[in-house]
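Sample intake sheet
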Amino acid sequence: MKPTLLLFILIFLSVPAFAASGVMTKEEDMRSSANAASPVVGHAAKGASVEILARQGGWTQISSAGKSGWVRILAVKASAQSGGAGDVLGFVEAGTSKRDPGKVVAVAGLRGLNEEELKQAHFNAGELVQLDRYMSDRSDAERFARSANLQAANVPYLPNPKKEQQQDNKNSPWGDGGL
């Protein structure tokens, strides 16, 4: 048992040396902490190669050009060749980071998931069972609405956009206007 414990300790202590490779998807200021109000400690140019050190909420800690700092999660993309080091780092981070359930972080898209991470996704029946625990039926919803003094309201559908608006929206980053 001692060799196993020693091996685990060695692996655990060596994890901080691992970092996943990444590429900046846009130009971004690096901040001293995962907060938009934090001081700027550096700058990462679009296309720059970086090392991904950690993730926290909507932020990713990177190292670039000898500097370390935090950038928005969608500003950096993990490289396909980063391999398992990022997986190990993510595993350790998940087991050691504290979550603040009162803190809500809003991010666009799929919360920073990239194509490589989506390809590695797999079916987990246990997660579906856990999801069922959050389900409520109509009577539960109505009971909650009454207790919160919510009132029903009929909301009309939005009118269909005009053809020229659709043409203008084709050049938007949201594709065909998202309509």
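Comment: DSSP finds six helices and seven strands in the chain. The beta strands are 20-24, 28-31, 40-44, 49-56, 59-64, 67-72, 76-78.
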